[in-house]
């Protein structure tokens, strides 16, 4: 599922456009929308902490999944939707929040039905998140809260990034079926912020692409980050990142490391992923010592 | 050709392809360096790649190919049907469905042992159904048509079970179950499947003498002192055990059991029992070769090995059908 949200790479252009759109939209919406519906996990995690009480009428069903959603506990207090056009039409919200990549047919249909739809791009990196927060604030009429949250995000991130030093261990985010996460992804920016070198990006992978087991063994990354994913049903693909060949690497640390759901979507919770990896990096390659 | 000479030649071919299989992979690792790594031990990358990735893959290619080739020879001899083969008559597809149903339902957690347990049940059910059908109707065609129906049903049920899984990645694995692959297998899979397959080989070997007598027809065989119930049990259990275990770890790999017996039969005395060992060795060679090709055909990634065996086997099957129509019907 993550795969779908991280497809293209023109993040800079998009964040600039988003900011422009937010500026244009904010004066028009003098009256904030009273009933807002979020159809996508990534808009859920932005809208839940920002919306006024009662403003968010439902969130996507994925928001309650502990393996995917960092706000799964909060999501229990909201009704859920399955992103179907009929549900939206019956609920008649003032504003629909969704992603540009997923559920594209639904979005087209809703626009034809004259619904207000705001689309968020989910080719996110750490750099795009503050602007996404501000845009969400503008859409919900909660600019002040959003500004505070975005500023806090930027300050915390800058604080962590300042701790990086010349010692940069290699890491590989290794997903189901031996797919690695490369350049231009949220995970890549998180690894960089925490002071890791992303092995997949250095081997020319952008977006997500298969990385053969044999090459992982011969590259010997310092850290392999595998999905925790035990809450879902079994699948054979989940065994590849847990292959015995990787466990046989004597100096490689293998684990989930990142709290569940924190780097699947670019919301404020991504900071927890950055913090967790920063702590890991300080443990395996402390800055004070010579390399 | 002398049986000993034929078996030695085929064993040599399988051994060479086994070594080639060990030498092929995305890591730039030649045969010499690889062999040194395989024998050296320790935490060197070459050792880990050889011992944990390439060796299990080559061992599975060898033993699964052997199982499928042998199962094809036995089924063709026992059912007196030149088109019989675990893939075509639906044994592999039912084994795959059994494995999928037990594993993805999460009944056994995410334990790998669920795979052979389910696959053996599926394969056993398929063999029993087909034996019952074969006993009622002697026609070559009935059995093949029943097998086709069983295969499609099992394939559809496999897709259904995978789509019902709560895990979003499960539905992508339908390709593995329908077309088979030896990619990213580990020693765990070898430990899981090899003893079961070896048990299947043993049971089939015990039935060899009886199959010769059966080529004269069941009544003639009975009058020659063949214990029919015992023979049937050995073949049913042996085939289900072997094909079930093979499918549990590699998915459905078709046509190996069809092509190989026909290729080696002209080199034997045409006694069904004399065909079993050469068909197994030839099957091992064919699957190893197909698995090497599956890794080399695409520059990035690899093909499912069942695609290659079908590319070789399906036209062969068609040719056999045309030829057997001329001769038999």
From TrEMBL, chain A:
- Source organism's superkingdom? Bacteria
List the InterPro entries hit by this protein, alphabetically.
ABC_Transporter_SBP (IPR050902), ABC_transptr_periplasmic_BD (IPR002491)
Q: Indicate the secretion signal residues.
A: 1-30
Q: Where is the Fe/B12 periplasmic-binding domain?
A: 35-288
Keyword Signal, does the record have it?
Answer: yes
Q: Keywords, A to Z?
A: Signal
Quote the protein name from its UniProt record.
ABC transporter substrate-binding protein
Q: Which organism is it from?
A: Chelativorans intermedius
TrEMBL record, chain B:
Primary location: membrane
User: From which domain of life does this come?
Assistant: Bacteria
Q: Keywords in alphabetical order, please.
A: Cell membrane, Membrane, Transmembrane, Transmembrane helix, Transport
Q: Which residues cross the membrane?
A: 58-75, 87-107, 113-134, 141-162, 190-211, 231-264, 276-297, 303-322
**Membrane topology according to the record:** Multi-pass membrane protein
> Which Gene3D superfamilies would you find in this protein's record?
ABC transporter involved in vitamin B12 uptake, BtuC
Give the subcellular location: Cell membrane
What's the family?
A: Belongs to the binding-protein-dependent transport system permease family. FecCD subfamily.
Q: Which PANTHER family match?
A: ABC TRANSPORTER PERMEASE PROTEIN MJ0876-RELATED, FERRIC ENTEROBACTIN TRANSPORT SYSTEM PERMEASE PROTEIN
- Mind telling me what this protein is named? FecCD family ABC transporter permease
